[in-house]
Automatic annotation (TrEMBL), chain A:
Residue runs in coiled coils: 210-237
Alphabetized UniProt keyword annotations: Acyltransferase, Coiled coil, Lipid metabolism, Pyridoxal phosphate, Sphingolipid metabolism, Transferase
Pathway field: Sphingolipid metabolism; Lipid metabolism; sphingolipid metabolism
Aminotransferase class I/classII large domain sequence ranges: 98-421
Family: Belongs to the class-II pyridoxal-phosphate-dependent aminotransferase family.
Annotated InterPro entries: Aminotransferase_I/II_large, AON_synthase_class-II, PyrdxlP-dep_Trfase, PyrdxlP-dep_Trfase_major, PyrdxlP-dep_Trfase_small
Domain of life: Eukaryota
UniProt-recorded name of the protein: Serine palmitoyltransferase 1
Cofactor requirement: pyridoxal 5'-phosphate
UniProtKB/TrEMBL annotation, chain B:
Name of the featured protein: serine C-palmitoyltransferase
Superkingdom of the source species: Eukaryota
Pfam families: Aminotran_1_2
Protein EC: 2.3.1.50
Keywords from the UniProt entry: Acyltransferase, Pyridoxal phosphate, Transferase
Family, similarity comment: Belongs to the class-II pyridoxal-phosphate-dependent aminotransferase family.
Catalytic reactions on record: L-serine + hexadecanoyl-CoA + H(+) = 3-oxosphinganine + CO2 + CoA
Residue ranges annotated for the Aminotransferase class I/classII large domain, each copy included: 191-549
Known cofactor(s): pyridoxal 5'-phosphate
Ranges that cross the membrane: none
SUPFAM superfamilies: PLP-dependent transferases (SSF53383)
Length: 543, 582
């Protein structure tokens, strides 16, 4: 091979006319001269020691923390609640008072379960607290393997990678597959851990409209057009799609069936985050795939968290071995972090066992989800339920949110929460978002289901919010805070409010069906395509 | 036919290579070439200018273990003396010889070649089901490496453990019938001395004060928290933990997080922004690098623990300003670790602080492996060097190691912590720390601080220092190539070849010692090593057993080929701290 090349060059040299050789020699010399000139010029441009010192002396760093932050206080627990004493279960004790807790993600009420504590205690007596090493270096305890196998068997998939933190699971998993140059299609309302994962992957991110598979299809089609122009490159670009089962930021449900079909059609790999829906949805708590009857084989991995319905700790990635095994060598948060403390793995195993052995608790929690949804729909005049009826998280957004300033809504909602705390002893929470969110959601009240709540307690939550909204004249505050450019809306709102008051006078005491009718009268604002009315109709059919 | 699918063959070939590699390194004087090599070795070069600028200073005669009678001393002098002793405490990092590098490359080359032949003759690849027509999920080299190189030595990692990772550890034996593709449990248990876990102070225990306190926490507060601290996850014990950590490290305030990795990767983006320049040590941990990348600051890397390289980068950075626009940087951060877990080196903090003052930079110090484990009071490298904690702008550390728990903290000025309470991703979205985990930290930290009314903590710190020195000196005396600082509890021993790494790990386990092997991609290709993590719970007998085993193996595969002068006098198992300060 090399010989042939040399021979070829030699042959050419001999055969070339001499002027050609001269010309080439001249060109080479000229090139050499040019490069030298460049270097000289650069040397001239370089600063002298003194000049450098001048610049260095002149440089002034900004303070470590900007002034404006220095003047702000920051509070935990929403700035409303003091630190918790004891167990944050169905009731939570704060500053010597007991409150009904619908603020934390304890959907199945397992945090109050003695069995989980027993499992944890047994593990401490066997393994101590920490695992003192990453999974690779003597940090793989047998309970980890057991938990991994259990999750995989539970979802009927091949393999699980267990992470020591729910946040880290999906945030590490995405960048271990998607690299620079790849394309990720993501729902615009994906949760913050997913956003971090997307950022760390350095792929190009294409956001599609929330829950709109039509829009996803458009984006995919657009990409297909681009691919046609450069077919060779397209063959090396991996494509991914990331959605959540139940969205952490809105409590809405993903149309997974349609998304899966699209992904299959366009040969896009699909990642589904079931942090919220795992253990709640489906007939036996196996998540959204069970609820919508989607074949889990069509999904490349499902990520989840043991920190919500399982009331333990850790996150996981579950899927076919071909995909998940890769986590064990390149999931950053998996390889370079100490493994989950064994006691937390132990309680995770117990939680899964409880879910597996008693599907009736899943049915129970779902019934309560629906009941809570209906109750909020029927009883709340000033809040609109924007989440799915089966979602364990109920997002209550204030009427008029769309025209009010962000801080005003936040303050008004805080007022409601404070008064509910004072007068009704119920712990509500306003979800906390950082400003760096991709789509900063509007402030809202988030109520989480807890299986241990009684139907009466659910009624009392709705009644409390309604009562407080009336007693602090919430609606007046809303109307008076509407900025001037929305005069029309304001007039509309006042009109419909008057209609509502009249209606209320006529019907003392609201019953379910009437409330629904009332809902139609009293809602001039923000009837988004997919929100209330349609769902109310659904509810009707259910009843 | 199963010609190459054999882990054993790899080991055998390594032995072959290893014996030949012995020649030039041990039978030194004969060849001129080797002499020249020794001349060029970094050891000598640096010996000329030991004062500043390089992490690889070697100094051996600082510590002659003669017990002197203790007299009354004035405390200040003791402190000064201690500090001087630290400065002298050597750090060694012998470079790989050309021959070793050649052998290592050869070893990889053989593995790759065999892999190719293997693929040709009998391809065995895990294939993906029902993903026809999709773009392949993995780059082809990546999967080649895992299939043909990593698979052969896969049994040396991820070993299942069936006990507390204390001074002993129980491994559950696995076997592979298909050369590393899959493993089955044999049901047998192997009891080993644990030199692999980060249990520096020996707080990983399943009984005693810490464990009982943790169980009490489970009973009272449950296991989960189900909420981030920003929403409704903050509890009294977490506030207490924040304050205790601040007191422990000597800063104004602190914030804690439930995972050490996330403490870096989810807090750094809240501190840095796009207009910042970051000077990052080349050996920094993955979590730091991820955090820096997410912060979108400009990252420049300087040579490991090399002050000259750092200063050069600092000057360059300030002079050139931001790329393209040449605007001056908003802030400059020096990001370093206390003890580097793969190198065993200790950061040269006083010099870094001097540079920081000179150029007006900020320092971010990750004390994951040093907090609790270094310094006479266990307060990390700051304590070790006798620096002022207020001089370091951001103090980070984890609870996974010395405290036998999980999680991490960031400590610093009140303003910084306020900033993090508002903007930290972990604080806003990550679930709050589990009560028993927090309780373990509270109990063990109080013990280290002596607030439990015993001197248990101080004893542990002393014991760890003694164990580390003894084990390291002994290894050096036996002629192993030992990396890092004399005082660090992390003790890496260079092995270079992947086959040797696997051999050492397997043989040590056979001899009842659990150690960690580290190779590519966690280290550079030619710098494979095994690593010992010393714990305060080890006794002299345990260490001696491990040393004996190591020497035996070293004899077989020629890894005792350090070219440094070897100390002749016997190494005593003593509290060097006390004895040097007469
Ligand atoms: C320097 C450094 N930072 C952070 C971490 C991560 O800590 P954790 O294991 O608690 O997640 C480690 C652990 O290996 C480390 O070495």
């Amino acid at each position: 091979m090399l010989n042939a090349v040399l021979a070829f060059i030699y042959q050419n040299l001999i055969e070339a006319p001499s002027y050609h050789l001269y010309l080439e020699a001249f060109l080479a010399l000229w090139l050499f001269w040019l490069i030298r000139q460049r270097k000289k010029a650069e040397k001239k441009k370089r600063l002298t020691q003194e000049e450098e010192q001048l610049i260095i002396n002149a440089w002034q760093p900004k303070p470590l923390v900007d002034e404006e932050v220095t003047n702000m206080e920051s509070y935990d627990n929403g700035g409303i609640w003091g630190p918790i004493t004891g167990r944050p279960g169905k009731t939570v004790e704060i500053d010597g008072e007991k409150y009904l807790n619908v603020a934390t993600h304890n959907y199945l009420g397992l945090l109050d379960s003695q069995e989980l504590d027993d499992a944890a205690e047994q593990c401490i007596r066997r393994y101590g607290v920490g695992s003192c090493g990453p999974r690779g270096f003597y940090g793989t305890v047998d309970v980890h393997i057991e938990l991994e196998e259990k999750i995989a068997r539970f979802l009927n998939l091949e393999e699980t990678a267990l992470y020591s933190y729910g946040f880290a699971a999906v945030a590490s998993a995405i960048p271990s597959y998607a690299k620079a140059g790849d394309i990720i299609f993501a729902d615009e309302q994906v949760s913050y851990p997913i956003q971090r994962g997307l950022a760390a992957s350095r792929s190009s991110i294409i956001y599609f409209k929330h829950n709109s598979w039509e829009n996803l299809q458009e984006e995919l089609e657009k990409q297909r057009e681009t691919d046609k122009k450069n077919a060779k490159k397209a063959k090396t670009i991996r494509r991914f799609c990331v959605v959540e089962g139940i969205y952490t930021k809105s409590g809405t449900m993903c149309p997974l069936k349609e998304v899966t079909d699209l992904c299959k059609q366009y040969k896009v790999r699909l990642f589904v985050d079931e942090s919220i829906s795992f253990g709640v949805l489906g007939r036996t708590g196996r998540g959204l795939t069970e609820h919508l009857d989607v074949d889990r084989k069509d999904i490349d991995f499902i990520s989840g968290s043991l920190e919500h319905s399982c009331a333990s700790f850790g996150g996981f990635i579950v899927g076919p071995s071909y995909v998940v095994d890769h986590q064990r060598i390149s999931g950053l948060g998996y390889c370079f972090s100490a493994s989950l403390p064994p006691l937390l793995a132990g309680s995770g195993i117990k939680a899964l066992e409880i879910i597996e052995q008693s599907p009736e608790i899943i049915q129970d929690v779902q019934d309560k989800c629906v009941y809570m949804h209906q109750t909020f729909m029927n009883k709340l005049t000033f809040f609109r339920v924007t989440s799915h009826e089966l979602s364990p998280l109920k997002f209550l957004s204030l009427v008029g949110s769309k025209v009010l300033a962000y801080d005003v809504i936040k303050d008004l909602i805080e007022q409601v929460i404070i008064h509910v705390k004072e007068h009704h002893k119920i712990a509500l929470v306003q979800p906390y978002y950082l400003e760096s969110e991709h789509e900063l959601p509007l402030p809202s009240i988030r109520v989480s289901i807890n299986r241990l709540l009684t139907y009466k307690e659910i009624d009392s939550i709705a009644a409390a919010i309604e009562d407080v909204s009336n007693s602090i004249n919430l609606y007046d505050s809303v109307i008076s805070n509407i900025p001037t450019q929305f005069e029309e809306t304001k007039a509309d709102m006042i009109k419909s409010y008057e209609a509502y008051l009249k209606w209320k006078q006529q019907n003392n005491g609201i019953t379910g069906k009437e409330a629904l009718e009332q809902d139609e009268v009293f809602e001039p604002l923000e009837i988004a395509e997919d929100s209330a009315p349609k769902k109310i109709a659904d509810l009707h059919s259910r009843n | 036919m199963k010609p190459f699918d054999n882990g054993c063959i790899a080991t055998n070939s390594s032995r072959g290579v290893a014996t030949s590699s012995a020649k030039p390194t041990t039978s030194v004087p004969s060849s001129i070439a080797t002499k020249m090599k020794i001349d060029r070795s970094p050891v000598k070069q640096i010996a000329k200018k030991p004062a500043l600028t390089n992490g690889h200073v070697v100094n051996h005669n600082h510590n002659n273990h003669v017990i002197k009678p203790k007299t009354k001393v004035d405390l200040q002098r003791v402190e000064v003396k201690r500090r001087e002793q630290r400065k002298r405490a050597g750090e060694s990092f012998e470079e790989c010889t050309l021959w070793d590098a050649f052998c290592t490359y050869l070893c990889y080359a053989v593995l790759v070649l065999v892999g190719y032949v293997n693929d040709l003759v009998r391809p065995r690849t895990a294939t993906e089901q029902n993903r026809d027509g999709y773009v392949p999920l993995y780059a082809s080299f990546e999967s080649f490496y895992t299939r043909h190189v990593y698979r052969r030595v896969r049994d040396c990692w991820n070993m299942p453990v069936g006990s507390v990772p204390g001074k002993y550890i129980t491994l559950l034996e696995r076997e592979s019938k298909d050369y590393g593709w899959t493993f089955n449990m044999t049901g047998k248990k192997v009891h080993c001395i644990n030199l692999g876990s980060y249990n520096y102070l020996g707080f990983a225990e399943n009984h005693g004060t810490c464990a009982e306190a943790a169980i009490k926490a489970v009973r009272e507060q449950g296991v989960g928290t189900c909420s981030p601290r920003k929403e409704l996850g903050n509890a009294h014990h977490l506030d207490e933990l924040d304050q205790l950590v601040a007191r422990f490290v000597g800063s104004e305030a602190a914030i804690t997080c439930a995972m050490g990795f996330a403490t870096n990767s989810m807090n750094i983006p809240a501190i840095l922004n796009k207009g910042c320049l970051v000077l990052s040590d080349e050996k920094n941990h993955a979590s730091i690098i991820l955090g820096l990348r997410l912060s979108r600051a400009t990252i420049r890397v300087f040579k490991h623990n090399n002050m000259r390289s750092l200063e050069k980068r600092l000057r360059e950075g300030i002079v050139n300003g931001q790329p393209r626009t040449h605007l001056p940087w908003e802030k400059i951060f020096i990001v370093i670790e206390g003890v580097y877990s793969m190198e065993g080196s200790v950061v040269r903090l006083p010099e870094i602080l001097a540079l920081k003052r000179k150029y007006g930079a900020y320092v971010y110090l990750d004390e994951a492996h040093s907090i609790g484990a270094m310094g006479p009071n266990g307060r990390g490298v700051i304590d070790y060097w006798g620096c002022n904690p207020k001089d370091v702008d951001v103090l980070m550390g984890t609870f996974t190691k010395s405290f036998g728990s999980a999680g991490g903290y960031i400590a610093g000025s009140k303003e910084l912590i306020t900033l993090l309470r508002r903007g930290s991703h972990a604080h806003a979205y990550g679930t709050a720390m589990s009560p028993p985990v927090a309780q373990q930290i509270l109990t063990s930290m109080k013990m280290i601080m002596g607030e439990d009314g015993t001197d248990e903590g101080v004893k542990k710190i002393r014991q760890l220092a003694r164990n580390s020195r003894y084990f390291r000196q002994k290894l050096k005396q036996a002629g192993f190539i030992v990396y890092g600082n004399d005082d660090s509890p992390v003790i890496p021993v260079a092995l270079y070849m992947p086959t040797k790494i696997a051999y050492v790990v397997r043989e040590m386990i056979k001899r009842g010692v659990a150690t960690v092997g580290v190779g590519f991609p966690a280290t550079p290709l030619v710098e494979g090593r095994t690593r010992f993590c010393i714990s305060a719970s080890h006794t002299k007998e345990m260490l001696d057993h491990a040393l004996g085993a190591m020497c035996e193996i070293g004899q077989q595969i020629t890894i005792r080929c350090s070219r440094l002068p070897i100390r002749k006098e016997e190494i005593l198992y003593d509290d060097s701290e006390n004895e040097d300060v007469e």
